[in-house]
From TrEMBL:
Biased composition (Gly residues): 74-84
Organism the protein comes from: Kribbella kalugense
Protein name, entry field: Sucrase/ferredoxin-like protein
Region: Disordered, residue numbers: 55-84
CDD domains (UniProt xref): TRX_Fd_Sucrase
InterPro entries per UniProt: Aim32/Apd1-like, Thioredoxin-like_sf
Length: 330
């Protein structure tokens, strides 16, 4: 919340202040190669996964949680335990970290119909593997079967639009996110989901377009549908793009500078072929382009600003900024 007079005001929230400062969106997408979408009909707590609960209707559920660490292939160490057998949200979060998956709660825009059956979604954003799978979610424990590969779900050809509206995490996300979710849901009701915290509160409204993992920031309701229609055309919207979570930030920065230099904004253009880390926080990235390979050299710098990057944050803090050094076609 804004700390000015003790109450939140949109005009002094972290997103409004970032707008006024002109904070750069470039290469601010958090890495997220895979996603677990968990439909939730209950209010979201600040820490989203604590909304997941053990169901007493599942025989042996508690025992399954306590023994999960020994039975999960490839798991490093035992699953976290709590109380009498492990908090389900902790275990799901631990498994997702082990598997390189980003979990988020999702819900449809508007009034939640708690009688409607829930779904889970598993999304792969890795280049060449982009895929969305959906399946029914009868209980929260079923997520363990999904993560263990026991329920493959059904492949969908429809993209997914996530709009962060997690007000208990940051008020700006709800205030700015809900109008964007409304605009997208009106045009694409089956593709659009509100979601829990995805990072970058100061860039609200934040939208993620899956399966390519495109993060967009400072999205106004008037341009929300534009992101969707452009994605259907196979291109990104550069001025709102934070980057693709499928790539590390230096690659996101290289892609941005290549697009700014006039290279195609096609979604599948500018894929990294090599990433070389140099000295002094510098990288050389070779991108594949429709016009031939592009070599881009960038560096990262931390700028200290007297500002809060979230409504609940403190100041001063540091913001990472990328600088272009060279961009050459080879």
């Amino acid at each position: 919340m804004d700390r000015g007079d003790g109450g939140y005001r949109p005009e002094t929230g972290c997103a409004a202040q970032a707008d006024l400062r002109g904070d750069s969106l470039i290469a601010t997408a958090p890495p997220a190669e895979r996603w677990l979408l968990i439909e939730s009909h209950t209010p979201w707590p600040r820490q989203a996964l604590t909304a997941l609960h053990h169901s007493s209707s599942v025989p042996g559920g508690e025992e399954a949680l306590t023994t999960l660490g020994r039975s999960t292939p490839g798991a490093g160490g035992g699953a976290p335990r709590g109380g009498g057998g492990g908090e389900l949200g902790d275990v799901v979060g631990w498994l997702c970290r082990e598997l390189g998956i980003r979990p988020v709660l999702v819900r449809r825009y508007g009034r939640v119909d708690r009688a409607r059956s829930r779904q889970w979604g598993l999304v792969d954003c890795r280049p060449g593997r982009e895929e969305v799978r959906w399946g029914p979610l009868p209980t929260d424990e079923h997520l363990l079967d999904v993560l263990a590969g026991k329920d493959p779900g059904t492949v969908s050809n429809e993209p997914v639009y996530l709009v962060c509206t997690h007000g208990r995490h940051d008020a700006c996300c709800a205030v700015r996110g809900r109008p964007v979710a409304a605009a997208l849901a009106f045009a694409y009701p089956e593709r659009t989901w509100e979601c829990s915290h995805i990072g970058g509160d100061r860039f609200a409204a934040n939208v993620v377009v899956l399966p390519h993992g495109l993060f967009y920031g400072h999205v106004p309701p008037t341009r929300a549908v534009e992101l969707a229609t452009q994605y259907d055309e196979g291109v990104v919207v550069p001025d709102l793009l934070r980057g693709s979570g499928a790539f590390i930030p230096p690659v996101q920065a290289a892609q941005h500078f290549a697009r700014a230099a006039g290279h195609s904004p096609a979604v599948d253009n500018l894929l990294p072929r090599s990433v070389q880390e140099l000295s002094n926080h510098r990288w050389r990235i070779l991108l594949a382009s429709t016009t031939g390979p592009i070599s881009v050299e960038v560096s990262a710098h931390l700028d200290t600003v007297n500002a809060r990057l979230t409504c609940a944050g403190s100041s001063p803090t540091q913001i990472r900024r990328f600088e272009l050094h060279t961009l050459t076609t080879t």
